[in-house]
Amino acid sequence: MGSKARMGFGSLFFHYVLLALFVASSYGETAGSSSGGRSLAQCNLFQGSWVYDESYPLYDSASCPFISKMGFDCLKSGRPDENYLKYRWKPDGCELPRFDGKDFLQRMRGKTIMFVGDSISLNQRDSLACLLHAAVPDIVVSSDDVKFEDYNVTLSRSLAQYLVDIVPEEIGNVLKLDSVQQNAQGWLRADVLIFNSFLWWNRSNPGRPILWHRWDYIQDGNQILKDMNRTEAMAKALNTWARWVDSNIDPNTKKVFYFGIPPTHMHGADWGEPGKSCVGETEPLMAKTYPGGPIPQESIVRGVLGSMSKPVYLLDITFLTQLRKDGHPGQYNGGDCTHWCLAGVPDTWNLLLNAALLEWS
Ligand SMILES: *[C@@H]1O[C@H](CO)[C@@H](O)[C@H](O)[C@H]1NC(C)=O
Ligand SMILES: *[C@@H]1O[C@H](CO)[C@@H](O)[C@H](O)[C@H]1NC(C)=O
Ligand SMILES: *[C@@H]1O[C@H](CO)[C@@H](O)[C@H](O)[C@H]1NC(C)=O
């Protein structure tokens, strides 16, 4: 229970406990209460199933100007099937609040929301921009940020695949497991921060061909290493990030999210269809558990968040995203089973973000 307490925001957890006790004693059950915030507070938003919903998608990708990578816009890339656009996430114990773009912008007035991490962060930022643009189409856009001028709301992005710094030194580029200062310089300008870092840790090579995430060495304490166990490296980096959050974030003015481990669908064996990949998949997996089980690094994230003194909300999207083998660009973006079509699954990540922010305010 202790670690769970730290995973939600302090006050959210407090409500959860109070309401759960209240509902348990009054009605002899803890699920299914209908009155607004109460059911949300006691509901595990991340356990549920995907249901077909004719009213989806929540926006038309063709009219969203913020899809940064051609490959994310699957309709434009020629994907002919459209069922993948029509699934709504239904938590078992409650309804996910509807996304009201104008209300979101009003609540966030004057604030900057920043997505920090790899291209999955960009996927999520673009999705939120599209969701909001559908509600408020006539806005001005400035360079890298998406700004909703009338509401003074900025959606920003900080590219930091490993969260920790990569520093050019004489021997080459060094990935510094104990330093986040350089990347973090821009982070404090945000009011809401959503961090994500996993995919690059899980690669068998460090992506050498691509300049800005290239590293030649890893520095762990005083040791300079040619390579090391990437899972252990990730755990050390996350602890460095956690120390930064604990000493720099004032939870009264800033909200911090950690985006749970994003799954990929390269190996059909994970969902019981060995030999396949996401290519050609057009339906979600309808299951209460994922055959491939949790991703091992999820426990690292939980452990680090559980050890922190500042509240960080875990956007625990792994399971619900695992079910969406149909949500990737696949053959319409060079066999891409890592990123996500827009409209699509990232919209649900943002509905969950919205639900968490509603609870918070
Ligand atoms: C927009 O928000 C920022 C940060 O809260 C604030 O400094 C700025 O004055 C606001 N601008 C307008 C035009 O309201
Ligand atoms: C890397 O470390 C993790 C966690 O300590 C361990 O489970 C895993 O087996 C290690 N991997 C290799 C290739 O040694
Ligand atoms: C992590 O890497 C391993 C080994 O390459 C791979 O089998 C696994 O699917 C990857 N996990 C994710 C979630 O991408």
Q: Explain this structure to me?
A:
This protein has 361 residues and is of the alpha/beta class. The protein has two domains: 1-43, no CATH class; 50-360, no CATH class. 30% of the residues lie in helices and 15% in strands. It has ten helices and twelve strands. The strands form three sheets. The chain has a six-stranded mixed β-sheet, with helices on both faces. Mean pLDDT is 87; it is low at 1-38. Bound molecules: 2-acetamido-2-deoxy-beta-D-glucopyranose (3 copies).
Radius of gyration, in Å, reads 20 Å
Largest sheet: 6 strands, mixed
State the strand order across the main sheet: 4-5-3-8-11-12
Level of helix content?
A: 25-40%
- Segments where pLDDT lies below 50 for 5+ residues? 1-38
Order of helices and strands: HHHEEHEHEEEEHEEEHEHEHH
Q: Quick one: overall form?
A: globular
- The structural domain count equals 2
| Average of the residue pLDDT scores | 87
| Small molecules held by this entry | 2-acetamido-2-deoxy-beta-D-glucopyranose
How many beta strands in the DSSP annotation? 12
List the helices and strands and how they pair.
Layout (H helix, E strand, L loop, with lengths): L1 H6 L2 H18 L8 H6 L6 E5 L34 E5 L9 H7 L4 E6 L1 H17 L10 E3 L4 E7 L6 E4 L2 E5 L4 H4 L7 E4 L21 E4 L2 E3 L4 H19 L6 E5 L38 H9 L6 E3 L2 H5 L22 H16 L1
Parallel strand pairs: 3-5, 3-8, 7-9, 8-11, 11-12
Antiparallel strand pairs: 1-2, 4-5, 6-7, 9-10
Bound molecules: 2-acetamido-2-deoxy-beta-D-glucopyranose (3 copies).
The site of one 2-acetamido-2-deoxy-beta-D-glucopyranose has 3 residues, from helix 7.
